[in-house]
Amino acid sequence: MQFPTVEKRCKKAYGSDYVPLPAPSIFVNNVLVRLALSSDSKQYVEWRDKANGMMQLPVIGINTEKKELWPVVAIAQNYFLVCCVPFVEDKNIDRKDLLNVFSVSIGFSVLLGILNFLATADRLTCLIDLDNYLTLSMPFGTPSDTDLSSAPYINKFHSQKFIKRQPAWKPFDYKGRQQISFKILEFVRSVQSDQSGGICHFETFGQISVKADVEGSLNDVTVSLLSTESGQPLSLDSVVIHPCVNVHGPSSIGSGSLKRLRFSPPSYEFIMLQYCSPFPKDPPIQGVFKMLGENSVELLIQLKLNDKVKNSFEYCDLIIVFFNRIKVSKRFGSCSHS
């Protein structure tokens, strides 16, 4: 999808340094060659594979007949390759300072939203829906929303009467049973050792997602966060909240025992906040494995539940990844628990 308005702005800003977009087939072929995804990618190409070359993936530059076209943001994921060419107004910007190029960050967010939409949508109709959504959400080539979660709802919304102004994050009103659901996803990353004096390193982090089905376009929802331990205050570090969420109470969300979060929810499920927690001080599950053998390998795995954790799991999966291994011909195992 090309936007003539953006191309005219680029011509005016760059003048004689303007690099036109090549034909779609040539553009796709150049991107595949640059990312080593073409049929002859196993062959060594000096300008692409040299050790002293500057790599800034997912931002790349592709060669055209005249000059290099930069920046091109390209992401390959789940058998899809999506890319865009953001408009950088300052033609003298330092390429090493990508963090200050806002159009690149916006383009990257849009591509991630497209990939998430393609991964969950129906393959037969998703391309048509995606084209319709991009046409509506990018007037004159400027994205109004980088989250494509509401794309299926917008495409099904055919009302021709616009009585009131709808916010960009909620382009239509919900009608039906009102309910709010929360989902907490928490991870514990741990490095453990059974040797005497071994140091255990671990960190706890997670996110809280919200799906709010409420009638009206500008309704506010207030959520209170508090610690379940009466003598232990709520302590969260490195908290990242969604732009639509406001924190009421202490200036820092990681201090105090009660936090109130106020937000006007969008129509789709969104991540309300992401956090890191200094608690608990001990990992919930302690585990160690030992591996012996040459031709045949004996693997001993021992897991122990922390005394402070209740054994109320519905299931527990243990996955051990063996990198660069050959095909396993025979497997024998026995399990004991107490």
Summarize the structure.
One of its GO terms (cellular component) is late endosome. The protein is an alpha+beta fold and 338 residues long.
Which series of helices and strands comes N to C?
HHHEEEHHHEEEEEEEEE
**DSSP summary: helix tally:** 6
Helix content: 10-25%
Radius of gyration: 26 Å
Pfam family, one: Adap_comp_sub
Domain MHD: 177-338
Keywords: Membrane, Protein transport, Transmembrane, Transmembrane helix, Transport
Main location: membrane
Topology:
Layout: H1 4-14, H2 24-34, H3 46-49, E1 59-63, E2 68-77, E3 80-84, H4 102-120, H5 126-137, H6 151-156, E4 179-191, E5 201-213, E6 221-226, E7 237-241, E8 245-248, E9 258-263, E10 270-277, E11 285-292, E12 298-305
Antiparallel strand pairs: 1-2, 2-3, 4-5, 5-10, 6-9, 7-10, 8-9, 11-12
Task: Please provide a written account of the structure.
Keywords: Membrane, Protein transport, Transmembrane, Transmembrane helix, Transport. By secondary structure, this protein is α+β, with helices and mostly antiparallel strands. The protein is 19% helix and 27% strand. The protein is built from six helices and twelve strands. It has helices at residues 4-14, 24-34, 46-49, 102-120, 126-137, 151-156, and strands spanning 59-63, 68-77, 80-84, 179-191, 201-213, 221-226, 237-241, 245-248, 258-263, 270-277, 285-292, 298-305. The strands form four sheets. It has a four-stranded antiparallel β-sheet with strand order 4-5-10-7, with no helix packed on it. Strands 1-2-3 form a three-stranded antiparallel β-sheet. The model is unreliable at 157-163 (pLDDT under 50).
